[in-house]
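DATA SHEET
Item: assembly model
Revision: 1
Owner: S.N.
Input lines:
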Amino acid sequence: EPPVTETTAQRAIDGKTKPLGALGALEPCAIRLALLQQTLAPRIDHARICVFGADHGIAEEGVSAYPRAVTAEMMRNFARGGAAINVLARTNDTDVEVIDVGVDADLSALSSLRHAKVRHGSRNMLREAALSEDELAQALEVGASAVRRAVRAGMDVVGLGEMGIGNTTAAAALLSALTGRAPELTVGAGTGVHGEALTHKRDVVTRALALHGSRRAAQSARECLRRVGGLELAAMAGATLEASRHPVVLLVDGFISTVSVLAAAYMAEESAEGSSTLLRRVFLSHRSTEVGHVIAIEALAALSGRALRPLLELDMRLGEGSGAVLTVPLLRAAAAIMSDMATFAEAGVSAGEQAPSHEDSGR
Amino acid sequence: EPPVTETTAQRAIDGKTKPLGALGALEPCAIRLALLQQTLAPRIDHARICVFGADHGIAEEGVSAYPRAVTAEMMRNFARGGAAINVLARTNDTDVEVIDVGVDADLSALSSLRHAKVRHGSRNMLREAALSEDELAQALEVGASAVRRAVRAGMDVVGLGEMGIGNTTAAAALLSALTGRAPELTVGAGTGVHGEALTHKRDVVTRALALHGSRRAAQSARECLRRVGGLELAAMAGATLEASRHPVVLLVDGFISTVSVLAAAYMAEESAEGSSTLLRRVFLSHRSTEVGHVIAIEALAALSGRALRPLLELDMRLGEGSGAVLTVPLLRAAAAIMSDMATFAEAGVSAGEQAPSHEDSGR
């Protein structure tokens, strides 16, 4: 069979019984799926969200509206199936795998979790690097092995999710370290930090950046991740790097996971490999209201050399992979348009007069 | 059991294990479902899209990029399951019922369609009223009976869809007649009408309005629908009026269906009943790129006394109920959040310090 190209995929979608372009954002999505799976009959049958949980040393600095204990409490909630991600996965026919990569509590009794704890939380980045080189390598591998398990289980989509009190702070620091953008642009309210508490959170990130340096100062993306990242951030970066070796969709959630994917993309860019194979797998699910998300998306778009727009804009800011799981039906829909819709020729429908642009409904 | 109020529903959602408001637009949606179904455990199990097909006399004036024959051809495509709505309904676990309310062709051999033809297309509104009073009454009843069938079949959601060459012209004329807004604001590209053809389409609508009058000139919404509407527009209005008698979600698609719902809402407003019961059923699915959609949404919001925002913004403009069907998973998700998520108390998760506003992910 000849390879599927952008041109053949575009021609296939344009032959379907609908005005050209009338399915909007689903159409480029369908084309990307056809290219990734190298077939004009792409399928999204099986999807899994991998939720990585970890604690953060920086939480000692009072950067979250919730106590640190909530990370472990929410892991128990995941294990019992009561959290948003569990509920949303059930209504969207999607698997969930919850992985303890670094929660500061003994969760070993919870049999429905995956146990891969590297450390009881990252170190406080105001005093030292969040992770040692060895811890970073282990956390990257935890993410990579989650993707390999998902691929072995026949997943077409691997979605990223996370849980970790303090992780909007770590993600903001990492985003600033990766892009050179000021903390004013990357630090947001997280779970609900406003006013003086938000000023304090920005100050914490500013101090962490002063201590640890950035890519602007010629520090590698990997070293940024080690110094100001965290265990679940590293696991999601490892998952992203591994995903580039398989024809799977890597479905990004909100702010935290987008920053992790960005770190992985820079790591790939800094290697012989480059980032283009990786970026072909990346699908953005939703636009979070967390202030730094737009910065992370722009940076990823700049690497991709094309505009990136999340499919959903629902003003969500929960994490856990909740935006990713809600996007699975749209991926299934996009694949099905390409695979299952009749063409004008097959259906005996008259083509219109016009070309490239049309509108709503009717015809 | 005490009735479910806005306050009890809001309290229920705020008790779930997530930062307050972190599920964004899904939360008000969950609250509306709880109020409509009068339970704190709402369910969206069964959904059906009713697709009403009809031709338009105004299509003689060359207002569409597609020949009139396409209406019948697409009805055959629906019957064989090859159109976008069929494909999307399958991936979203949703029923489709396609109803011939006025296609200008003999479709009686197609057993998978519902046959309720009132007339072989509406009349040309540049010469006379699109429908007689009797035809309007019949078309309204076709829509009403579709909703009754859906309710008897146990549907929690009835979505609106349509197919009809020329129907963006009729919908634009109806929207202008209902709201008094100029054709420049209501007439758009439809399936792909640009430049001189678009100017011609606007001119056709302007002439139709001059002939038939508007609500501004004290004409009833029903009379506007009769004079410048069409058979599928009337059927969707009839479906909307009937939906107000049942505790179902009425899921609106794009431009055409929103205009039909608006006509029904004004009809209810002009009757002893008022429009509030009806408007409680109305859920907007997606924002179409057709120019007049925003006008129709604003008018509906003004009647509702609250902002209305479609859940999806995917730059779609296909009709057929394609936006509605893509929204069904989001309704299921919203219901499940309210029904199935654990509370902080149930899950033993510590509550945060803060109140009303938070951000993405982490915590």
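QC remark: Residues 81 and 87 of chain A are 7 Å apart (CA to CA).
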